[in-house]
Amino acid sequence: MSLPALDKYFQAFWQTLLMVGASAVIAISLGLLLAVVLTITTRQGLYPKPRLHRALSIVVNAFRSVPFIILLVALLPMTRFLVGTTLGTWAAVVPLTVYLIPFYARIAQVSLNDVAPGLIEAARAMGCRRWHIVRHVLLPEALPGIVGGMTVSVIAMINASAMAGAVGAGGLGDLAIRYGYERYETRVMFEVIVILIALVSLIQLVGEKLSRRLDHKH
Amino acid sequence: MSIAALIGAQASLLAPTPEQPLARSAGVAAAAGQPHLVFERLSRQYAAPAGPVHALREVSFTVTRGEIFGIIGRSGAGKSTLLRTINALETPDAGGVAINGVNVGGLAEDALVTLRRRVGMIFQHFNLLSAKTVRENVGLPLRVAGVKPAQIRARVDALLELVGLSDKADVYPSKLSGGQKQRVGIARALVHEPEILLCDEATSALDPESTQAILALLRDISSKMGLTVVLITHDMAVIREICERVLVLDQGRLVELGEVWRVFGDPQAQATRALLRPLQHGLPADLAAQLVDDLEGRPGDALLSLRFNGAAQPQGVSLQHLALLGPDATLIHGGLDRIRGHAQGSLLVSLPAASWQAIRAHGALANGHGADFIEVLGYVPARA
Questions:
Q1: Rounded mean pLDDT of A61-72?
Q2: Nearest-CA distance A149 → chain B (Å)
Q3: Which CATH class is domain B285-381?
Q4: Residue B108 in contact with partner chain A when CB distance is under 8 A
Q5: What's this model's pTM, rounded to 2 decimal places?
Q6: Fold (topology level) of A6-214
């Protein structure tokens, strides 16, 4: 039995950051796009396309129903196709991204739906085209919620990334399981937990601060 | 005016210069008094769980260029729908609205965007973007029209000065009072130099003081810029304050239309009377409790209501006329308002029943008491 060296922690930390960071950038961009499409295609939306809306909604719900660990396995062929391998940190980015897109889309959708209809009406009355309304009204007005949703999503991803150890992605969660659970080194597990708490707290703090700064509603 | 002409007119507005005064060109001023908006047999239905709701039923009327036109009705009377057909935020099921002879309903999106830049709109809840500063809010209509930033800045500065908010340009709307928010709304609505301004309950969310200030501002800009203003409200006081003509809607129907002083002085429709009630000097409750139909020989006072509708004595009520009621008459309640140069209102007068009998017998009041209507409300017995 041996304790991991300090660089093991650094490596695991870096792997977590890489996995979460890369997936977050892709998933938040695509998730936001999906949220906008979901919002504007409702019957009362800017581009009413109820059938498209329903189809997208079903897909989103389907992906949200699958537990991450199962998604991880189910997506292996897709991962192989996209990354060329099913092992390692980059291989974990694919299922994490796919997991996060619908998750984040639903959160962002709530904020977009909360934009007061009166603001959209005022924009139409002033001669805004529909994409102007998305660009100047929907997105900026929902921004505090969109950013707040990012915080929630990134933290949910850190959680999910622990399971990515199953595909040999490494990361903090994997370190904790391998040493803490499989080798009965509880100290390592606790140390990893402390690091995770610090990381999550920091993200929460920064996210809240940013969201508050962007919010001029009050 | 053709759509091409509308777009042409718009193109010239896209390059406003800071030196350009806010006043409309002489050509438009010369056209004052001509029909600007023509509503023809406008109908609109909504599907509701309890069956279709008729928001508008065959409403036809004309708004003259340069006038301040009021639309009043209870909530759900169809005012909001009617107002929104002007800038095609609502589409009528039948009939149509024409601006300068161009039917609004027939416009494609491009022409509609152009049209909406000629029609400003302000709202009850202001509808300012919370994520943008006052300057950005006012400048947004120009920005989406592709106007250059330097020109936007100059134009926004001029408008903020017009509405008295130059010092708030870089503040977010949440830091403003209701009255200030509505000023921003007005500046935003005017930024394209529209020819029409639509006001959707623009003062209903404001305190009385801000209401007065906003109404004064609206009156001021409408005369300065030669704007045609169409406003909807449920508050008759707003109509009295600034409108020239008023249309009363009740359950989607046009029930009354005319000059404000006439409608106020002699309302014809039941709905109009109901809307006017809060402004009228009703019978005070303490007197109402003592009122009897007949004194049955006991001593007491007669209670008379004198109503002035602005027709017989438009300039005001002559004291000489009131003196015909005799030296014992007492003014106890009431008031007069001057509406578009016509004095109108009501006065409650009490006088000893005996004097009243004598005056009536004498016939002094038969013609020339000055009131347009005189009514004996009843008698108040003298206290034992």
A1: 92
A2: 18
A3: alpha beta
A4: no
A5: 0.83
A6: MetI-like fold (1.10.3720)
